[in-house]
Amino acid sequence: MKGLVSGAAAILLVSFALLFTNYQLEHKAGGAGKDTITVYNWGEYIDPDLLKQFEEREGIKVIYETFDSNEGMMGKIEQGGTSYDLSVPSEYAVQMMEDRELLIPLDFSKIPNIKNIDPYFMNLPFDTDNTYSIPYFWGTLGIAYNPSLLEGQTFESWESLWDASLRQKLILVDSAREVIGVALNSYGYSLNSTSLQQLKEATDKLETMGPNVKAVIGDEVTQLMINNEASVALTWSGQAADMISENEDIDYIVPEEGSNLWFDNIVIPKTAKNIEGAYKFINFMLEPEVAAQNAEYVGYSTPNKEALAFMDEETVTDERFYPNEEARENLEVYENLGLETLGVYNELFLKFKMGLR
Amino acid sequence: MKNNPLRFIYAVPYAVWMLLFVLAPIAVIVYYSFFDLSGNLTLGNYRNFFTSVYFKLTMSSFWYAFLITFFSLLISYPTAYFLTKTKHKQLWLLLIIIPSWINLLLKTYAFIGLMGLYGPINAFLETIGIGSQQILFTDFSFVFVSVYIFIPFMILPIFNSLDKINPALLDASKDLGANAWVTFKRVIWPMTIDGVKSGVQVVFIPALSLFMITRLIAGNKVITLGTAIEQQFLVTQNWGMGSTIAVFLIIFMFLIMVLTSGKEKGGNANGKVK
């Protein structure tokens, strides 16, 4: 009995010690005071060196946390456990967050560097007047392929993904709107289609792509392409840039029927405690040199017009990652279709995946 | 001790635990399953579950869970049997258990490397003349990796029940003229059936709701109930439908528990050997 009691006491003691240390750590992270800001961003989506620069210049400590999906991020902000001062949702997520009143309107007088952003990327339909958001990076959805593993196939058209020569070669992203979007694009329909008829046509066509599909996965595709394990992948431009920087055989193309144009945007969520600090951080990130350094590090395309001058000539003239305005004509930005329609997309996608062999 | 009211105090932590962490969450899941996206009370989620998509999903989940359990048992039973015959059985057992201490995701990622086109398995197939195969993203790789992950959980209970068998019983069986097969069928198997049952439980039930492996190893060509629940909560944000699938999963698990328990009154004549 004595052993039992002392054992239980020891466990309790250790538990409380852990609880206390944890509380201390959390308090440090979450309890953003005057001289700290908490930035909530995607993984690998900022040059860590810039965080240091900012800390040194402004004397504000940056606590950096990462997320891997818009939905997960929104959930955490909605719960409000941690006082995030900045976040970087994608365009449709900006709309959803706005609908749920999770955002604070931006005061442009505190962000003079907003003038550096290319006007083309301002006032976009998901946040007209940029009331809540400023574009951080942008890109497209397209096809990454490795000609050295293929037999001369090209991908100017989405239709080429249905070609019988790609049997068991194609890797798709595990995301309903992107994959169904390929079929919608191939028919010339809008990526924001809510017509059940069009969606049915699209998924019927997708089913015939089944034999070509090798796998439907997430970020793992980057490694598979780099290692020559896979030869064709539906992927985002930034991911393709990562692949190309590691494996020069790989190429990236946006088929000419059009595709998705996406934006990740800086917002100040309503959990923010240090709003002044958040503005300083946004303004800092919009400085041309800083934005250029960040874009070089991250590999996605920057909407910062002035930053392009500080970047590698070869990068910014690469039409694959900085398509000209004419090429952008065919690109379409996702709108928030509402949970009801999102459910329809996902159910159709689930059905498609279940039909794969 | 018999009528000591203090006895009930010992049951309090258990009762509180069950209430807070078993009954309450189940109640919450059942509660959510009756709401649609806009928060209206509805039976629509249940109706939806019986549409072809989810029905097929359930069937295929069961099929893969069955395959995984079957192969785990097929490998684990003989393994456990020979383990009991070895000299340092605790050491061997430990070696089999150790991998289960490693994080599941790490092991899964390791398999991506092993099974890749240029991985060691294909290099081996190449040298013995079979030629490299697409191993990753197939039914085979999914079942193989799942079986690998579940084997320790199947071996442990079977090993324990085998280890408890009194060797004198086997001698007696032999003396009475039974050959090896009859001894196994009439003595060893009935005495280890409980171990097999609990092994089947700990493998089959989690196998129904596997989800990361379906993406990383099977490339989402295998969809389980677990994947569907994850999707409903994280992507579609349809908590009602996610909860409904979860409710059915709980029902299935309960049924499996009932089917694989019932120790003494199983009505199995062979069970009487005990």
Describe the structure.
The complex is a heterodimer of chains A (357) and B (274). By secondary structure, chain A is of the alpha/beta class. Chain A has two domains: 34-138 and 263-324, D-Maltodextrin-Binding Protein, domain 2, CATH 3.40.190.10; 139-261 and 331-354, Periplasmic binding protein-like II (D-Maltodextrin-Binding Protein, domain 2, 3-Layer(aba) Sandwich), CATH 3.40.190. Chain A has helices spanning 2-30, 48-58, 70-79, 91-99, 176-187, 196-207, 220-226, 237-246, 275-285, 288-298, 313-316, 325-328, 338-354, and strands at residues 36-42, 61-67, 86-87, 133-145, 170-173, 213-217, 232-236, 251-253, 259-267, 331-332. In chain A, strands 4, 5, 6, 7, 8, 9 and 10 form a seven-stranded mixed beta sheet that branches. A three-stranded parallel beta sheet of chain A has the order 2-1-3. In chain A, α5 crosses α6 (196-207). The longest helix of chain A has 29 residues, at 2-30. The mean pLDDT of chain A is 91. With 274 residues, chain B is an all-alpha fold. Chain B has a single domain (53-273), classed as MetI-like fold (Orthogonal Bundle), CATH 1.10.3720. Helices cover 72% and strands 0% of the residues of chain B. Chain B contains twelve helices and no strands. Chain B has helices at 6-32, 44-49, 52-85, 89-97, 104-115, 120-127, 139-163, 167-175, 180-208, 212-216, 225-234, 239-260. In chain B, α3 crosses α7 (139-163), α8 packs across α9 and α9 packs antiparallel against α12. Chain B starts with 5 loop residues before the first helix and ends in a 14-residue tail after the last helix. Mean pLDDT of chain B is 89; it is low at 264-274. Classes of the chains: A alpha/beta (357), B mainly alpha (274). At the A-B interface, β6, α7 and α13 of A face α3 and α11 of B.
